[in-house]
Amino acid sequence: MPSVHPRGAVDGDPPDEALAEALRSGPFHLALRAAVRRRGLALHRIQRRLAEQGLHVSVTSLSYWQRGERVPARTESVRVVRALEQILDVVPGALVRLLEPAPGGAAGGARAHRRYRELIGPAAAVRHLLDQLDCRTEDRLHTVSQFEQVHVGHRRELRQREIQQCVRAHRGDVDRYVSIYEGDPGCDVTRMRIEPLDNCRLGRVRSAPAASLLAAELVFDRPLALGETQPFRYRITDGTGGECTEYVRGFRYPVGHYLLQVSFAAPTLPVRCYRFGRRAPGAPRRRVVQVPLNGYHSAHLAEQELGPGIVGLGWEWD
To answer: CATH code at 89?
Structure first.
């Protein structure tokens, strides 16, 4: 398993490596926390150093920033971040850059992350599933890269999806990832099958049949340290729903690379495929771009530096 730094390391080369990686890929709060750790300064000392420069920010705000619960938004807050770069001995502009909008994503003044319930339609059912799993991972992991292969069957049903994913811990002591799957209308969540394939095992599984939702824990072999990465792969077999016309993925945090490929079973092929974004579940499609169906009966989208939100592929049957 790739590792940015050993568990519990605070001083020396490993924190430098963790900071360098966080500054490259973000998100902002992870890079800020890594810079604070490397420098070894308490937040009240950082606040005092800022005040000496005429910049007034509360310890609470600094704490929110490094936990990802708030993002510096106003002009004066960005001035504080520039001062933080100097105080924390970070290359000028390195932290400010992470506040800039990602292509197709939110601007730096928006929140750096979104909740599960903002990305999946039945919000109350999502909240109930997460409560059942006592989910502590929602704000502890973010996706570095993800590759999804989706297979649509002869009946135009979503038959299977296989996910290869790499996540990074932006808080320590997290040992699992919670995957939430929303099936198409008419699906039977009790007949779906979840298979861990690489670097994970299946933990607890919970469902909300009325909302067509399935939640599953993919458990790692040990807890991850702050900044550590974990690749894993799993498969969900469905095939129980009605006609499928789109596949979407919601991202709570910015993601470095996302590749989605949808394959169709000949001779039942769509007449048109397109990529789109969406602000919220059920919202109108935005930034619609037609994509080709290739000779292997598949269409794909590839995104880099994708901001929090919803992206997917849609298609039309004849």
So the answer is: 1.10.260
Alpha carbon distances (Å) from 193 to 181, 215, 232 = 11, 12, 17
Domain that holds residue 239: 116-316
Average pLDDT over residues 98-114: 46
Q: Give the total residue count for the chain.
A: 318
- Which run of H or E residues covers position 31? helix 28-39
pLDDT at 110: 36
> 10 Å Cβ neighbour count for 49?
16
Exposure on the CB side of residue 219, measured as CA atoms within 13 A: 8
Helices 59-67 and 43-52: angle between axes, nearest 10 degrees: 120
Query: Which residues on adjacent β-strands are paired with residue 149?
Result: 162, 261
CA–CA dist 205, 181 (Å, integer):
11
Strands 158-169 and 246-251: unpaired
Which range (75-84, 141-150, 151-160) has the least confidence?
75-84
Pick from 54-63, 127-136, 237-246, 266-275: least confident:
127-136
Number of CB atoms found within 10 A of residue 304's CB: 13
What is d(CA 31, CA 246) in angstroms, rounded to the nearest whole number?
A: 35
User: Is residue 80 domain-shared with residue 215, that is, in the same domain?
Assistant: no
DSSP-assigned states of every residue in 174-188: EEEEEEEEEPPTT--
Boundary residue ending a domain (97, 126, 150): 97
| Nearest Cα to Cα of residue 38 among 53, 55, 21, 24 | 21
Give the residue ranges of DSSP H helices in 140-276: none
Q: Quote the pLDDT of residue 170.
A: 75
pTM above 0.85, yes or no: no
Find, among 75, 63, 73, 74, the residue nearest to 32 by Cα: 63
pLDDT for residue 37 is more than 50: yes
